[in-house]
Structure formats: structure tokens, C-alpha cells
Model the fold of this input.
Amino acid sequence: MSIIRQLPKVDLVLEHPTIDALTIRVPRAVVVGSIRSQIDQRRRRILSGDSDKSLVAMEPLVVDVVSDVTRRLAPSLVSVINATGVVLHTNLGRAPLDSEVLQEAVQIASGYSNLEYDLEARGRGSRYTHASRLLCELTGAEASLVVNNNASSMVLMLAAMASGREAIVSRGELIEIGGSFRLPDIFRTSGVQLVEVGTTNRTHRADYINAIGDQTAMLLKVHRSNFDMVGFTAEVSGPDLVEVGHTYGIPVCEDLGWGAIEGLDTYGIPTITVRSRVEAGLDLVAFSGDKLLGGPQAGIIVGRAKWIEVLRQHPLTRAFRVGKLTLAALERTLIRYLDGRAAKLPTTHILTATRSDLRARADALCTELLARKVDAEISVEPCEGRVGGGALPSTTLESWGVRVSPHNRKNERIDKLLRSAAVPVICRIDEHGLVFDVRTVFDTEVILLADAIDQSIATEE
Ligand SMILES: *Cc1c(COP(=O)(O)O)cnc(C)c1O
Done:
């Protein structure tokens, strides 16, 4: 027990020159909190039988306090280098935002704005007016609404239009997008009775027609974002479903998920534009702001004014509302589509990068690595990336990458060190080495990436 009494007292630690210097930059309370917790940890170790003398020594305690304080003050959400070649990587923040768009948004958000103020009428306005005109112009819709994300769009559409009644969905479209978005759960949350029609692989017009009853409030089409059906399949497209719905006077809505403002088909990326669905007569179309659109996280709903008004009146709209940063960034992203600068939005730019640009970036990375005499086999090779998380699973993006096969070291160890680098690096890994797909690496990151690879391999001697 006596060794516990030798633990340095908090006041004494505070007098140590290193800690004293620390309290000039860092609030004293944070430093004291850290000293207490470090002393506590040592006390517990002593009580559990550890008699290591260094537990009561001042110098190691000071070192631990300094690194603990640094850790406490560091944010957990940080930039990473995406060398996976997956462009809209859900785990890595999906769409990278345009820096000019962001600067403009920051300017709005760092001061006051007319977020909910009508400058003409000199009184209360609505935050929902801001991106609205642009969304209508770009999609041909009568009206629009922006909410927190596309999952909330779905809950809102169902709750506002079909609560206590039924909505019909094909069995081939009862999707799960990540653990927290499963269509049957979304229905339950919205208080809507799910009526499944057709079979997993085939659904026909007649299936919808036979299921329509006096409780039917909506026909819902859900885009199969993250898997493909091939073989003996049949489905009723959104536009065909419109015909059925309107014959029976029932609204038809579509969850387009990866809906785009501009098609990317000429770049080999099959896309559905939101406009094509609006023109086909869908009552409402919902899609994400941070997928192909290349904007901030948001759920965008466009369509008939009558239904948008029903949604707007619903209390969930308040619960799902977006902040000024999102609205400012979204509106400015949309303007890029109108003024012809959409090709420069990072998402579009990355998705449509040419093979020769990619090759040049891979060569540049390779040159940097060779200059550092990295202890590894290094080669430039063609590789395949993807559009995003689970989107367009059959579409691959031809790219160029750098393969690094470290000498006498385990690939997994290097990968782990890369993930703890100053700017963490996420790459692909296989039995022959680590692959860095340069499509998703910005030109400005090439040097940083080369340094991280070099240091990781050097650390793991
Ligand atoms: C991505 C996606 C969603 C979920 O959208 P979030 O913006 O992530 O909430 C819902 N439905 C479909 C079809 C999607 O592709």
C-alpha cells in the first residue's frame, strides 16, 4: 500500500515546467482533468498488484499527461486520403464538396442570413424557398423540398401521404441500404401498411392493379441502388407505374437514391436523371444530395406542388429540417449546374477523369516513391474502381493505380500504419501488396501519400 502514497500529488505535477508550459496553451481545467485521470489509472494498476516503481515517477507521468491532453483536444473526424477508387464512398463521407461552394457557404453561415426572412415582405420567410427555384428549373418539377437525407425523404413521403393506409411496393425492391435503412422498417416507422406485390425476380403491371384497394394511398417505386438483378426478371418502370396509378387516381412516388441532375452515360456510367422521372409524370421523386449530385448530405424531394405542400405541412418536416450550411452549399452546388460549371464539381470531375489524367497521376505517385527509395516493389498498373458504396454494382471505373509490395514486411502491417498516418490513408490490399487507385486521390495529395507510404514502410523495419 505504501507505494500509493508515493504517487505525485496533482499540485506538484502542475508545478513541473513542462506542465506549467502546457497550461499556457490549454485551459488549466483540461490539464488538471488529465493529471487526475493519469494518477487514477496508476492507482488502479498499483491496487491490482502492479509494483512497477515507474508508476510513481514524475517524468513518465508528465509524458503521459502531455500526450493525453493532446489526444483530448484533437478532433476525431479528420481528413483521410481515399486511395480505394470508390468515388462516393459512404464510409469516407460520400461526395467531396467543391471548395468554392464551401467558401461561399461558410460566408453565409459565419454571419446572419435571410434563412427564414422574407426580404421583400419584411417578415418571416421559409427556409424551404431557397434551393427550390433552382431544383424546379433543373428537374422540371413544380415544387421541391429539402430535408436532412434521403432516408428522411422516404419516411416523410410515406408518413405524410399514406399514414394509416397502404402503399404498394414490388418484392424485388424491398431493399436494405446499410443496416439502418431497410424498406420494411421505414414503412413501420412511417405507420404505413406495406403491401408487397410480385415475386423477387418478376413483378408485372397486373400485380399492382390486383393489389389496389380502397386503402391504397401510394404506389412506390424504389431504385435498386446496391444490387443488380439479371436473368429471368421483369419489373414495372417508374414511368409505366405512373400510368397504372393515374388510372386509379393513386399517387406514384419513386425513391431514385442515386438520381442525377445530368446524365453521365457518355462516360460509361449509367444514370437516371431526376428530370426524366419528373417528365414521366411521377408525383414525387426523392434522391440524395451527396451522391451523384455532388452536394452536401440532403434528401431532395421534387414533384407536384400539391404533394410537396402536404409534406411541408407535416410535423416530421420540422424534425428532418436542414441547417443553413447545408442549404447554402446545396443552392450553390445547384447553381453550378445552371451556369455550366458542373463538370468542375469534385464528384463529376473524379467520375469523369480521363485515362490519361489518371495515368499521369499514377506515374507521378510512382516517381515520388522511387525518389524516396522506398523498400518495396513499385509498379503502375491498370485497376478498377467503383462509383460508390453499393451504387451501380455492375459498373466499374477503369483507372490507374500504383502497386506497392513491401520487401520482408506484412502488407497488413503497412496498411495499419497507413491508417494511423498524420493524414490517414485508406487503400486496397491483396495478397501481392497494397494498391493505391489514384482516381480518388487529389493531385494535391500525391506528395502526402508518397510520404505516408514511405514512412509506414520505414517504421516497420
Ligand atoms: C442512398 C439511398 C437511400 C438513402 O439515402 P441517404 O441520403 O443515405 O439517407 C435511400 N434509397 C435509395 C434507393 C438510395 O440509393
